[in-house]
Amino acid sequence: MSATTARITAVDTYDVRFPTSRELDGSDAMNPDPDYSAAYVVLRTSDGGHEGHGFTFTIGRGNDVQVAAIDALRPHVVGRPVDELCADPGSLYHDLIGDSQLRWLGPEKGVMHMAIGAVVNAVWDLAAKQQGKPLWQLLADADPEWLVSQIDFRYIADALTPAEALELLRRGKQGADERAATLLQRGYPAYTTSPGWLGYDDEKLTRLARAAVSDGFRQIKLKVGADLADDIRRCRAARAAVGPDIRMAIDANQRWNVAEAVEWTKALAEFAPYWIEEPTSPDDVLGHATIRRQVSPVKVATGEHVQNRIVFKQLLQAGAIDVLQLDSARVGGVNENLAILLLAAKFGVPVCPHAGGVGLCELVQHLSMFDFVALTGTTEDRVIEFVDHLHEHFLDPVVITDGHYRAPTLPGFSAAMHQTSLDTYQYPHGSFWAEELAQKEATA
Ligand SMILES: [Mg+2]
């Protein structure tokens, strides 16, 4: 190896928290007061060139635990040659999930796995910058054989073999150039959750639901599950605001037992909800299957808390979901999400990703756009969640036009935040929190 080979020299981490709980933005039946947060990581290189940015999303307390988990991965990353890393992010992904001691904390789930996702996504950001392409395009341009080499088929080969994945990707290449042109011209369909937070009153709900339709969205989503009488009233108000032709999803954020999920969903059926999201525990595969059988034609959706490709495999095998909601920052990064996209394609289940939070829209749009251009080739019954919070902190924020995500054109994974945002909202010493904590102390 020559002395000039660029290497990763530092893995810098940041505990970044935004005070979103003040406005009840993001409030739902299980999470009444989230402070949207990011455990944020920057990979720095010895040539001082591109950096890789990544993060995982939390909702406040515990973000320090998440940062500590990323810190624990540092020895695997520092010193790696940048070119090798970018040519094969899967090699790092394998090393991280295979760390024989850290693996005990999962395996492949929870805080440690989300930390792996943050680091792996930072590598993909770096790789896309090196290639001078937005990530969706890097993936769409990649050889199917190489993409298959990036996937860990352990524990999923009973549902999807490497040969089947290769076949799906080869088929996905046909017509990819035309679809890329369509994507750049038209964007990718979005739906919005902004009207439906549980902490908003009916006037705000109605106003935002009407605004969503006039902004071009064809689907909205409401939080439900705290109080049935309230839900009936809110669903009635929202349906009246948007009319019969707009899809209206509902989201219980894991609030219910299986029987309760069925009863509650049926009690809201007169408002024609399109899907019921997270009706119960994300780990309850058979529970979701039972709910799905009993609430049809209301569809069942889940995924934002599904911990890995193996649970997604079972949800698909059990016929437990109509809509798969992968999340860019919950599982082991792009590598594992490629496996999940391919599983969904194999089973013919549409992917409607979870987004919102901090930066989840920025990240996940790349995965759906790749899926459209070079995997399933369709946006039918597919929408990416959109929530209009905190985008101003990003260098390359999402752009929504007429209810569609515009395709990003800047190189990378759209993950980088402004340094001023990091400095202001770093917890507890950033200028915003330092002032807050000082004030609290003064009034105590
Ligand atoms: Mg949700």
TrEMBL record:
Keywords: Lyase, Magnesium, Metal-binding. It comes from the Bacteria. Pfam families: MR_MLE_C, MR_MLE_N. It catalyses: L-fuconate = 2-dehydro-3-deoxy-L-fuconate + H2O. Its cofactor is Mg(2+). Residues 202-298 form the Mandelate racemase/muconate lactonizing enzyme C-terminal domain. Its EC number is 4.2.1.68. It is an enzyme of class 4 (lyase). This is L-fuconate dehydratase.
